[in-house]
Amino acid sequence: MLHSLDLNADSNLLRRSAPTSFSESHDVLDLVYIAIVQTPTNQQGCPGMKDEQLHDLILQSLEHEMGGVEVYETALKCVVNDDLKEEWTKYLEQTRTHVEVLHSVCEAFGLDPNEHAPSRKVVRTIGSALVKAMHVALEEGSAEAAQLVACEAVVIAETKDHADWELLAKCAEKLTGSKAAALEKACNEVEDQEDEHLYHSKGWCRELWMQSLGLPPVLPPPEERKNVKTAIGASRAEQAAEKTRKRSNAKR
Questions:
Q1: What is the CATH number of domain 51-192?
Q2: Of 43, 89, 101, 226, which sees the most CB atoms within 10 A?
Q3: pTM of the model
């Protein structure tokens, strides 16, 4: 019985097997076909997906959520707006839950949640820089300025967070078995919350910047009032804010 070829093996194999007749040419084509379509899959049965990279993404995501807890704890020290404080308090508790969710994913994949990886150090460094920036703003600027820095830190953190979970969801679609089920369950639990964290935080950041510039803000931002959880919804919310601003300017 024919076995799949190691495509990295002797490059002269096919040349040495050059057909001398029509029937032999079919044999060679069959051999090439088998070599291509029977490419080894990963342990989860997904062609092309790299297990090691997926494991790294899971650990990165865990590290980022852990850093996200610190980001929100520090951001709450900077917040001035009461509505935003309520929003971030909710996000902090949800982020703590996300850490627990990713611990469960690590368990399902047989990963040590405390495993050291160079990528985790990079993620930790970025998160620490965001926390440090907020502390600097608290120490050297006004309360309103510190709140803006906190808004920007949250948006930066949530952008990475949102991207991580989108990638994990894509991986879950390609996996099979218990690991696929565990990852899909985690993504379904977290997805809507991550959408809200990103799009609402961007709206807050935009409108508080408008306020700081002396331009009419729309507070709370439309993203929160409309409970936006999609990119299209966020775009419409921003357009709604601009229409409100124009009407406000026209009345002046």
A1: 1.20.1260.10
A2: 101
A3: 0.80
